[in-house]
Specification:
Elements (H helix, E strand, L loop, with lengths): L15 H13 L2 H8 L3 H15 L4 E4 L2 E4 L1 H25 L4 E6 L1 H8 L3 H7 L4 E6 L15 E7 L8 E13 L2 H7 L13 E4 L5 H9 L11 E3 L2 H9 L4 E5 H9 L12 E10 L6 H28 L13
Parallel strand pairs: 3-4, 3-5, 7-8, 7-9
Antiparallel strand pairs: 1-2, 5-10, 6-9, 6-10
Helix pairs in contact: 1-2, 1-3, 1-4, 2-3
């Protein structure tokens, strides 16, 4: 535990101004550069350093002609100044919301296929927000998640059962079978769920084969071996495999939408819309970051609503019944 000197009212501390001037001079090892950085005179820097040395009763710099270096005591004091100033700055950042900076953790496919293509639009809509995206390759749907005050986490799960974080539902997956026209040309048409029994299935590795299992159960397709086929580390890789004709994939419509509209993938037959995982936005309640987090959440909702409308119209054009899914993604 750090010792507290509050009862002494910090009477043995030098002034904040002299500490800042010393930190700059020690970092540059040059009084002139320190003076320019702090917009004071070089003689002002020298005066503050001399006063600080008198206060500490020790030399902080070794003066060798036009060059200076830190003494051993100076290096020790410089380390302490950096730690103290960093601690103070971190506290101020927390109070002020870190000047619009948020960290966002997201599944890799969500980041690559949805977030990154919208970064320029996000900057135009929320120019005050600086968003740092991190991907989470090894996170499973059952994980207990912890966050920092300025951090948001987009988490795919069946249901987030823990109450340690605030959870906002972003969307639910709508699962479809997708396949490339090239694969169909080489392996024959797929006209019903039953036709899938003899085809190569594509999977993501981390959470097992939950999408194929959920879809097969919803379709009551009990003779489909959902353990067979190729496995890939991420959904993005499985989608690329499907686009290149390696097999048939069940995935969230959102991530396949661009490939469907471009003709790289097709939905081979009309099928019910099966609900998959839920995407939730997790955050740590913090009043200093709440306005920024809420602004980003509102932006996410707006973008997802727009996507929903485009995807619903696409499915209507294919004669799909979307009426039962309008409360979810569609």
């Amino acid at each position: 535990m750090t010792n507290s000197y509050t009862r002494h009212r910090y009477q043995q501390l030098p002034s904040q101004q002299s500490i800042r001037i010393f930190e700059s001079a020690a970092r540059h090892l040059n009084f002139t550069l320190a003076a320019e950085e702090l917009s004071i005179t070089q003689s002002g820097v020298s005066k503050q350093i001399k006063g600080l040395e008198r206060f500490l009763n020790t030399s902080l710099f070794i003066r060798k002609g036009q060059k200076i270096d830190l003494t051993d005591t100076g290096r020790l004091f410089y380390t302490g100044c950096i730690e103290a100033l960093d601690c103070l700055q971190q506290t101020i950042n927390t109070i002020q919301g870190q000047a619009g900076q948020l960290r966002l953790q997201a599944p890799p496919t969500f980041a690559s296929r949805w977030l990154i293509p919208r970064m320029e639009l996000l900057h135009k809509n929320l120019p005050e927000l600086s968003l740092h995206i991190e991907t989470t390759w090894l996170r499973t749907i059952q994980d207990y998640i912890q966050t920092e005050p300025n951090q948001l986490v987009i988490h795919a799960c069946i249901n987030y059962p823990f109450n340690n974080l605030r959870a906002e539902l972003l969307r639910e997956e709508s699962l479809f079978v997708v396949v490339s026209p090239d694969y169909l040309a080489r392996n024959g048409q797929i006209k019903s769920a039953q036709d899938l029994v003899n085809h190569t299935l594509l999977h993501t590795r981390l959470d097992g084969h939950i999408h194929w299992e959920a879809w097969a159960n919803a379709m009551q397709l009990h003779d489909l071996d959902t353990t067979a086929g190729y496995e890939f580390e991420t959904l993005d890789m499985a989608l690329s495999a499907a686009e290149n004709g390696l097999g048939v994939l069940v995935c969230d419509f959102l991530f396949a939408f661009e490939a469907l509209t471009n003709g790289r993938l097709v939905i081979p037959f009309r099928m019910p819309i099966v609900t998959g995982l839920r995407y939730v936005l997790l955050s740590q309640p913090n009043r200093h970051y709440q306005p920024l987090q809420q602004s980003y959440l509102n932006w996410l909702y707006q973008q997802i609503k727009q996507d929903n409308q485009e995807m619903e119209q696409y499915l209507i054009n294919l004669s799909f019944d979307t009426s039962e899914r309008r409360k979810g993604i569609l």
